[in-house]
Amino acid sequence: MLDPDSGLSLTIARIVRRLQGSSLHSQLERQARVSLHKPEIKLESLKEDIKDFLKTSGWEKKLQNAVYSELNVFPSPCHPAAPPEHMKEPLAYMRKAQGSWEKRILKSLNSMCTELSIPLAQKRPASEQKELLNKWNEMGTDEPDLSLFRPVYAPKDFLEVLMNLRNPNYENGEQPSFRNHLGLIQVPLKVKDIPELKEDFSELGLNTGQLGIDDSAQVPPEFFENEHVRVGQKVLAEQDSAAAQQYVRQGCPTALRADLWALILNISNQPEDILYYEQLKSNVIQYDLLVDSLIYKDVKLTASNDDYYFVFEDYLYQVLLCFSRDTSVLEHFTYSSATPPKSYIRGKLGIEEYAVFYPPNGVIPFHGFSMYVAPLCFLYHEPSKLYQIFREMYVRFFFRLHSISSHPSGIVSLCLLFETLLQTHLPQLFYHLREIGAQPLRISFKWMVRAFSGYLATDQLLLLWDRILGYNSLEILAVLAAAVFAFRAVNLMEVTSLAAAEAVLADLSTLKVMPLLQIFLFATVT
Amino acid sequence: KCGLAGPVLDVLSRRPGWQQAKDEEEWDFLWCDVSWLRENFDHTYMEEHVRICHFRNHYELSRKNYLVKNLKRFRKQLEREAGKLEAAKCDFFPKTFEMPSEYHLFVEEFRKKPGITWIMKPVGRSQGKGIFLFRKLKDIIDWKKVRKTMVEKQFLERGNCMLFLSQDGVRTDEQKDETQIETYVAQQYIENPYLIGGRKFDLRVYVLVTSYIPLKAWLYRDGFARFSNTRFTLNSIDDHYVHLTNVAVQKTAPDYDPEKGCKWMIQQLRQYLTAKHGAGSVEVLFADMDNIFIKSLQSVQKVIISDKHCFELYGYDILIDRDLKPWLLEVNASPSLVASSQEDYELKCHLLKDTLHIVDMEGRLTGKEKRVGGFDLIWNDGPVSREGNLGAPVNGNFMANTHLGCYNDRKQQLKQLFRTLSAQQTA
């Protein structure tokens, strides 16, 4: 076992390595140099004085935020001798499964490519470039012929793969019964039970004020809401990431949400960030990728048909097309179990010098992918800021929802958590649904993969995502899914088919997320 | 009795204790359309308890040219009585000129501001019919010529009927018939509308007036924002679909997809604006909208024939510009009660149910209520405060009793209300 001290020094070394050479580093240096002109800085106590200066001018806080961000995103190193695959995914069978899943996706993409004789990437002719530049703010008005394109995969295809996951070292010869797991996921991962969840999510308890419950019309604002807003404004004034993350566990006031999320994700929209976005944009203009058509199709099929997100269609293209070309996203593959697909320049198949990652960011979009971006359009209207927020949300959270890993926030664990919660606390319902061929996960899977985007009302979804950011974990998605089933249990007990069960759970738009979570975690008799 | 199908009929049919009257039968409550009103109101005797859903001369508010006249007159009055600042609160209506009678005044204004866009709207028609935009005088000179010959023709045919309107006083029905054919208004087009996702939208808000003298008005919490299907640009003046946000017009646009639904509930809009501009600016915006409702009703207060049998549900069309200033586009006395989706159907049913609760043919209310279901009382011969009982003196911080775009928990409120009322009655 790694002793805590060397673990800490490894972490520190890693963070220092990552922050060195970053723009924050050069800014801090510049600030320190500038401060030399100030009268408070004396030669005798140079180091101390500069440190004090950085503290009072808010730069130390920025450094703190950056360090906090790194801690949040990167997992702690397991062991100095562990190979890099272990940071991606410690369990070998999971790595293997992810690998074969990726091969399947890539095969599907390549075959579509050959069928339609469209290259994976090509440079646009000058006239097309000019046209696209003119239409940049209204790409939604384009009506390209997308009938021949199909999404590379849909969530239900992914579910089939997850259902077939098995740990080769685990012998489970018994028939499924109440003594073991009755659900679709049959891998022995450790998931939390309700007492553990209650501890983890203690701020959602009955005695703590929440936005989404204690700001309703019946409750006078003096009880909770006004004070909560005041605290939120203070947090923003202090510009403290860690405090913000703690604060949003009780929900964000609508007016402060955009800034609070940006603070937690450590996004400040510096000039170099805007420049980076512009570079990506010019990349989009110059080159056409096959995945662009997949993105178009996805947006047209999902977000454009949504009653509330259809308005943001143009923004979605502006974000997703740039996203596919952003090679900085490749960094997240060091801690993701996935590996970016490789493609080869025409005629040089197999020759490593001619291998490129395809798409450049290594992420192949699937059916419903654009729904990750749509709710963010409610908060951010400037394209480069919207883009950065989405990218950060993706490399912190969303990537775990469509890759096979043993991480507690990975989709496999979430599915298992959901099924376990349901089986343990609503056994009758679970058994009944299983008997009629309506395994609960078949219905809730799509909710979790999309982080409930497009299923809940927007304000409720944002309250849910507040908590994802606050707890830096996606487990709340599984808890909510179970809470929804618990809420509609009476109706579900009466259905006799999968289709009927789907119908009972088809419309979640009237649900209030926080009361459901509170009741399920804190007010149900266990 | 009900002249219209759809949510109105459904709500009335399902109301406990109510029965639909057959054709020749006597009725206690009538939901009619305005043409019936015009033909029959004057010859119908109504007993004390009878209620009808329109005021005799609602067109003072709903006809664009009359509304303009009434607002202009009211503004002058306010300036005389209370000064320029107070009168400026009436500046929520874009500069409008009646055509062809105010043609010369219009040309004067047109020449003062060259290059801006104007919109021509027929006064009597709805759903976006007959509307067009123009920037050059030439565009309407031709139009005027055509109209003039038509007008002259009609003038000769009708002998010595008055074609143009008197400045005030009640207009006769024949005069209105003629103006129905001919009169348009030319209005300054709002060139900087607030855009969401590059699209223009307008708001539909519902205001219920149960009496004009004294003025008693209720504001419904729900409403919706209607989006144009295409991106806004001033380059395509001829493209009706870009500029007109009526659902009726959008439905015929080539890329209209009924599944898409181009409406947002006002709650959604309020959330979006709060996230973008902060709660303070949004409060100011909604307070400005309250001002529009009240001032517009006050401007016709003295002109509308007050009749205790009448009540009216108005649909206000509001446009917000990029400085977050609301503009009044028009007032509909017969807002569309046809539903375009399930959510829409529910909204309209609830709206109508609550309207019937307020009209209170069952005689359940005490008259002191400040809220019934989704309706908040916003004017009771004076502003209504959120705090305190109705009629109590206003003290300290006055907060208007309006909740447009706020949470609408009408079911609970109604349950509580009726429970209290029946308890009071048995006591």
Automatic annotation (TrEMBL), chain A:
Residues 251-472 form the Rab-GAP TBC domain. PROSITE patterns: TBC_RABGAP. InterPro entries: Rab-GAP-TBC_dom, Rab-GAP_TBC_sf, TBC1D19. Pfam families: RabGAP-TBC. Transmembrane segments: none annotated. Gene3D superfamilies: Ypt/Rab-GAP domain of gyp1p, domain 3. This is TBC1 domain family member 19.
Automatic annotation (TrEMBL), chain B:
It comes from the Eukaryota. It holds the Pfam family TTL. GO terms for biological process: flagellated sperm motility; microtubule cytoskeleton organization. Keywords: ATP-binding, Ligase, Nucleotide-binding. InterPro entries: TTL/TTLL_fam. GO terms for molecular function: ATP binding; tubulin binding; tubulin-glutamic acid ligase activity. GO terms for cellular component: ciliary basal body. Belongs to the tubulin--tyrosine ligase family. PANTHER family: TUBULIN POLYGLUTAMYLASE, TUBULIN POLYGLUTAMYLASE TTLL9-RELATED. This is Tubulin--tyrosine ligase-like protein 9. The gene is TTLL9.
